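Open question from group meeting: does this chain pack into something compact, or does most of it stay loose? Before anyone orders reagents, we agreed to write out a predicted structure and look at it together. Recording both the input and the output here so the notebook holds the full record.
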Amino acid sequence: MTSSGPPQRGNARKRDTRRFLQDNGITLGFGIAFLLALAGQAIAGRAEFNNQLATDGLAQIGFLDYLTSSDFAVDVTENWQSEYLQFSLYIFATVWLLQRGSPESKEMHKAGTESDKDQRVGEHAGPNAPRWARVGGVRQAVFSRSLGLVMAALFLLSWLAQSIAGVAAYNEQQLRQLQAPIDWTHYIASADFWSRSLQNWQSELLAVASMAILSVYLRQRGSPESKPVGAPHTSTGIEG
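Structure tokens returned:
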């Protein structure tokens, strides 16, 4: 009698692994790309930082020291906060703001928070709906806005982290130039803090506006960010 237990279990694990990779392809793919980009930023950032130290006649620092430095932290967090700002504004603004012909917009007659029937909450929720979508009151109200609230919280936390790392990096530069450091409250009112923030914000807002209008007239076959290739330019709120 031949036992086929171990090979079957091995094949099942392989199928489960393939299924997991397929089901989470976007998260895994972009997550890996993020880590590679972060590593590249750390390598390039350390080289640039050490060049500046050499110019100032100071000793260079190692890779691990740079990873824990305020200079690296502020560069990372200022990018994070601008990205979370983009998504926070987009999530909240597109409840009411529309763009005719764009798959990035809801249909033109659906501006606003929509009805319970449209959103399938409360008595209109299906059997597989999240539990908090089926109940009423505060839990449903919170869950109904949970994506925007979490994105906004992540923006505020990363912006706070940027300000804390930023004042430390700014004061290090001040000390190297034999100038007096400043405290956090003065830093968040400084040109350095707002320059770092606004230069990222304007690029994120431009990207969102460009995507909304370009997707009216241009197509990308197979992408959910695009309408079907043959859809009319005026078709709104549909994805390919």
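Observations to bring back to the group:
The first helix runs from residue 5 to 23.
The CA atoms of residues 188 and 194 lie 7 Å apart.
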